[in-house]
Amino acid sequence: MPDGFSVVDKQAGWTSHDVVARARKVLGERRVGHAGTLDPDATGVLLLGVGRATRLLRFLTALPKTYTGEVVFGRETSTLDSSGVTTATHEMTLAMEDVAAAAATLTGPIMQVPPMVSALKVDGRRLHELAREGIEVEREPRPVTVYRFDVESTPDPLVYRVEVECSSGTYVRSLAADLGHALGGGAHLRALRRTRIGSFGENEAHPVDTLVLQPAAVALRDMSSTSIDASTAAAVAHGKVLAVYEPSDKDDAVKPAVVLAAAT
């Protein structure tokens, strides 16, 4: 059975689960998982773990992500993107400097309310399931970080291209909606594409039908690493407790600490 890691370029109209199901058929392996859900309408980078490499996916979910898309001003939708129905319209006149200034206010550590059409759970049920039943529930704002929020005008005065680099758990369509509100009206997102997760970019992504399986160790290339001897490797493989060293708070000396080494 194959074990490995793959960078997939998800096509529009597919859920992340659809990609996993297809990868299982292509590879003939049931143990396939993904890190970082993409909306069905979105395209771009989706990381897959295959076989024993699925155990490594939990280390990838926290990697920063980069997206491109278009913010359409003047119309709000039920899903905050182009797939929803119109809920409000606004007459808006925009200037590039005003849009850039509003985007700057949404950069850095911010509190973001998750959209109702999302996979988050409230009282054991996913928000998008409740939304389909016409139920809206209170959502607590969550801390996220937007490292970069670049905007660029287009020939359409109500459409701006954006590129967002953000922490895991950030909803770009919520940023688009908030940007519209910050400019005195409303907006929604369209043409969302994830171009990067950590160091894994769209330039190395492949369609799921022609996915390239890489060694499992590639999945951890963004993590710090160290070399160990054979006896330590055997201890790690058996999940033994290892002694490590940390700098002292008082001086440059080192002091022992104990961590649990989990086998991969």
Question: What report would you give on this structure?
Answer:
- The chain is α+β, with helices and mostly antiparallel strands.
- The chain folds into 3 domains: 4-63 and 198-220, Pseudouridine synthase (2-Layer Sandwich); 66-194, Pseudouridine synthase (2-Layer Sandwich); 230-260, no CATH class.
- It has 5 helices and 15 strands.
- The protein has helices spanning 16-27, 96-105, 127-132, 172-182, 230-237, and strands at residues 4-10, 32-35, 43-50, 65-73, 75-77, 86-89, 108-112, 121-122, 125-126, 142-153, 159-166, 187-197, 200-201, 241-247, 254-260.
- Strands 1, 2, 3, 4, 7, 10, 11, 12 and 13 form a 9-stranded mixed β-sheet that branches. Strands 5-6 form a two-stranded antiparallel sheet. A two-stranded antiparallel ribbon has the order 8-9.
- β8 and β9 form a beta hairpin.
- The chain is elongated and about 70 Å long.
